[in-house]
Amino acid sequence: MAVTLEYERINISRGGRPVLVDIDLVLPAGGLVALTGASGAGKTTLLRITNRLLAPDSGRLLIDGADAANEPGPQLRRRIGYAAQGVGLFPHWTVGDNIAAVPWLNGMERQGRDRLVLEMLDLVELPQSFASRMPAALSGGQASRVGLARALAARPGLLLLDEPFAALDPETRNELADRIEALHKAQGLTTLLVTHDLADALTRATRILVLDGGRLVADATPAALVADPHPAVQALIASPLDQARRLVRLTE
Of the candidates 34, 69, 27, which has an alpha carbon nearest to the alpha carbon of residue 198? Predict the structure, then answer.
């Protein structure tokens, strides 16, 4: 079941430099929210605070109204789907064992895990025979799909995606983005997607958050964001808009 996220005046610094500043934000259940901004804006830091890999210096995160700090980090993370840039599959485990990692930690018996692995492979549109493959035998797109299957195997209400398309070719990234969008809807998730690619955010997300220097400078629908006058927003939008205009001119 999708969850609600509430960030209350989140602040964190590293080496005396502010990384996130006074983040006040409510994300209702069921949204597909894109988090974007220039490199170093604080995107991944906010994601890592969300799954308790980092603790803020001040402020708190509420998940479905409960303070996330009151639950042990490992226990919380087993309820959250997480897929990161580079995927991070365990290289000496089969694809099936990678997908079943969290259910195994949660005590699911082998027969149940085997059924779950086949179900997850179907879900991300990979052949069931991939369960016995090793990660080194996968293409980049296949590995990304396995990472997504692993993130979904614990039946989370919250899915966190950190630049999941960064190392993929355009065709593969588009296919994976389509699959994520479809799974978000079908599984009834709250999804927070970190991306540098504003075109992905504008065409996939229901809501877009823009960080600049650790501050939340925009929180809008895709249509509203295009008209936002903030310089950081306009700088992000300039490139995809220019590319779109060039493509339109070519078709004319």
Answer: 34
Q: What is the pLDDT of residues 36-87, one digit of tens each?
A: 998 889 999 999 999 999 999 999 999 999 999 999 999 999 899 998 876 6
pLDDT digits (tens, 9 = 90+) for 119-166: 999 988 899 999 999 999 998 888 888 998 999 998 899 999 988 877
Taking the model in full, what pTM does it have?
Answer: 0.89
- Which class for 180: exposed (0-12), middle (13-18), buried (19 or more C-beta within 10 A)? buried
Yes or no: say if 239 and 199 are a contact pair by the CB < 8 Å rule: no
Residue recorded with tokens 């087993």: 78
Helix ranges (H only) for 65-139 are 73-77, 95-99, 101-105, 110-123
- Spatial contact of 113 and 104, defined as CB atoms under 8 Å apart: yes
Q: Which two tokens stand for residue 15?
A: 């080496």
185 within 8 A of 227, measured Cβ to Cβ: no
Q: Is 40 helix (H, G, I), strand (E, B) or coil?
A: coil
Helix (H, G, I), strand (E, B) or coil at 5: strand
How many alpha carbons fall within 13 Å on the CB side of residue 62?
Answer: 14
- CATH superfamily membership of 5-76+93-251: P-loop containing nucleotide triphosphate hydrolases (3.40.50.300)
E strands, 121-176, are 158-162
Domain ranges for the chain: 5-76+93-251
Name residue 211's amino acid: L
